[in-house]
Write a structure and sequence with these properties.
single chain, about 190 residues, alpha/beta, Rossmann fold, 7-stranded mixed sheet, two-stranded antiparallel ribbon, 11 strands, globular, 5-formyltetrahydrofolate cyclo-ligase activity
Length: about 190
């Protein structure tokens, strides 16, 4: 089993090897796969905005689906001073600005409590067959997911297949699903 540091390095390198065209194509495939998830009767959806410099999944396609289905869309704003995340309602007049960490974030807006969020699309670098994930290592999402209601659904998005096993800590919150360009992995069954 690889340690988290090695996994982060491995998946950052794998991502860097992808062309912009491949990222775009696979991001569209992930959005199309996501349509098959049993989540579309919900109301409040939390989705991360793409950090292009890190070759992340382009979440614009999922955003379009959510907007087309007239869902409430909530986006994160990282507070690095407290290592907490604020959840801001995305509205037509929401102004986005790229933070010093390269993260597109809302400048201001209506803060939404984690307890009302139904579905969270979770960024990750790696994940395993049990739904454990490895992120960038700051713990923002684990702290945020812990505050969500027990019925909230956590969905990882990945270009790659699962590792057989990754290190798990008590503070880690597992995923319910992970969506790849070709598959939906259901960790509930």
């Amino acid at each position: 089993m690889l340690d988290k540091l090695t996994l982060r390095k491995k998946y950052k390198e794998l991502r860097q090897s992808l062309s912009d065209e491949a990222i775009d194509e696979m991001s569209l495939q992930i959005a199309n796969q996501a349509l098959k998830l049993p989540i579309w009767d919900k109301t409040n959806y939390h989705i991360f905005l793409t950090i292009t410099g890190k070759q992340e999944i382009n979440t614009e396609y999922l955003l379009h689906i959510l907007q087309g289905k007239d869902k409430s869309i909530i986006i994160p704003k990282a507070e690095f001073s407290s290592s907490e995340m604020k959840n801001i309602l995305l509205q037509e007049n929401t102004v986005l600005k790229t933070s010093e960490y390269g993260i597109p974030e809302p400048v201001s807006g209506i803060e939404v409590p984690a307890e009302i969020i139904d579905v969270v699309f979770v960024p990750l670098l790696a994940y395993d067959k049990k739904g454990n994930r490895v992120g960038y290592g700051k713990g923002f999402y684990d702290r945020f997911l812990k505050k969500c209601k027990s019925t909230a659904v956590f969905i990882g998005l990945s270009f790659f297949d699962a590792e057989s096993e990754i290190p798990y800590e008590n503070t880690d919150i597992p995923l319910h699903y992970c969506v790849t360009p070709t598959n939906i992995i259901d960790f509930l069954n």
